[in-house]
Structures are given as C-alpha cells and as structure tokens.
Amino acid sequence: MEELRAPKGATKNRKILGRGPGSGKGKTSGKGHKGQNARSGGGTRPGFEGGQMPLYRRVARRGFSNYPFKVEYEVLNVGRLETAFNSGDEVNIEVLRQRRLVSRNAVRVKVLGQGELTKKLNLSGVNVSKSAAEKITAAGGTVADSEPKDQVEANGIESDS
C-alpha cells in the first residue's frame, strides 16, 4: 500500500487562508491592509490601469488591412513528387489531395524546386516556381499555367493598363 501514489501533477495543494498567524497566511490572508483589493469582491477588471487611459484604448484601431485578401499557397517540393508519382502521371490538385501530399481543403498549391526529379510528370492546375519548372521540363515533363501571372487580374480587379 505504501507504493500507491497519485500521478505527478494530479494533486494541487490549495492555499488555506485565515487560519492564524502560524499558518503563514493568517490575519489579513495575504491581502495586505485595507484598500480596494482587500475588500470582498474587490479588485479591478483586466486592463484597468488605475484611471490612466488603458493600453487597449490608447492604441489606434483604424485604417485598412490587406490581410483578408492575402493569397496563401500550400507548398510542395519537387522531391516529394519524385517519390509519390510514376513516370508519365498527371499531377493536379485533386490527385495531390488523394495522395495526401496536400491537405484536403487546399485551394492553391505551389510546387517549389527543392530535391531532384527524374520522372516525366505533367503538371496542371498548380503554380510552379521557376526552378521547379526547369527541373520538370528537364525530366521531360510539362507544366500548364494555372493562374495568370498578374494577381490583380486573377482576383477580379481590373487594372487601367
């Protein structure tokens, strides 16, 4: 019976307050003398700075952020394509999802040039970096453009030029 112990971290000793001077937390129970924090229900809300204008109200919250329109790509290196596909295979987002090389909800995929490629692959519907395109074409494969180079036109915003 002596070997039985609660797992480490299972017990947390509660601080017992107001049980006499010998306890170390007697008399004022660690609250000091009088004042707002000594009262029952006392204390201040989070962010209160004693009447000074709090930080969350001092900092400006206005202006425009381009963050909601940020275009994010899921990246994949050429070396991963080498191991996952056979020569002559067709590579697109749907196939990449099925083989779990990208997440199920990947919308945009970009193939980068890290690693070696010896197999002839035909890529379509994915963006490809310049170095990756060179490696794919050097191995005898093809790369079809998925999106226009000008991102402004791709997002449906017409330019004046």
Cα-based radius of gyration, to the nearest Å: 31 Å
Task: State the strand order across the main sheet.
Answer: 1-3-5
What's the oligomerization state?
Answer: single chain
Global mean pLDDT: 86
Task: Assign the CATH topology of the domain at 71-153.
Answer: Ribosomal Protein L15, Chain: K, domain 2
Structure description:
Strands 1-3-5 form a three-stranded parallel beta sheet. Strands 2-4-6 form a three-stranded parallel beta sheet. The radius of gyration is 31 Å and the shape is elongated. The longest helix has 9 residues, at 130-138. The protein contains five helices and six strands, in the order αβαβαβββαβα. With 161 residues, the chain is α/β, with parallel strands linked by helices. The protein has a domain at 71-153: Ribosomal Protein L15, Chain: K, domain 2. The N and C termini lie far apart (84 Å).
